[in-house]
Amino acid sequence: MPEVMFAGPDGRLEGRYHHAKQAHAPVALILHPHPLHGGTMNNRVVHALYQRFQTMGFSTLRFNFRGVGRSQGRYDGGIGEISDAAAALDFLQAVNPNASSLWVAGYSFGAYVGMQLLMRRPEMGGFVSVSAPASHYDFGFLAPCPCNGLILHGSDDELVPEGSVRKLVDKLNTQKGIRIDYRVMPGAGHIYTPPQAEQVADACEDHVMGMLNRNRMALAAD
Predict the structure, then answer these.
(1) Can you tell me the distance from the alpha carbon of 104 to that of 87, in angstroms, rounded to the nearest whole number?
(2) Distance between CA 37 and CA 39 in Å, rounded?
(3) Host H or E run for residue 108
(4) Does position 1 have pLDDT exceeding 70, yes or no?
């Protein structure tokens, strides 16, 4: 997994990048939890998602937001971090100009940033949001939500009540043409154990491969 440094809006950003062997491979950007609460690109859920997208044949990038690890800059309350994510997507697209689709996956704070990125980049093909902090941030900006995706949450999340996420999902599912795949993981809190992180990756693979196969079938039917 080659180490990469790329230009961000507030200095250079540190990442790990895997380039898929297949031409026109889809790409995935993985976003980590809150920088002020120990979140880094080496978080076990982020790492599990990074490896799983590789297995699915994606060119995949995870990186540290500004001020984390060797990434330059300082925490910016979420605003700058959204710009960091956009810069990371720019890097991915520059290296993969003919990618068949673009995905973003985020965990906790990373899920919030990923959903914000969706609204700024209409070329996104899908998303995976794990433990989205729906009780901490206003997700009203998803109006309308630009694409379908997976939202996964722990039933016993002690930081973000499952009901707040279910309310968000119900609201998104009322939007025309939007179908959110909502999955609740029994017994999981906000922090996932190593076996639970693999379950998160399993759910991600099940959703993403289902979406990609449906898209292929639709193209074949045209």
Answers:
(1) 13
(2) 6
(3) none
(4) no
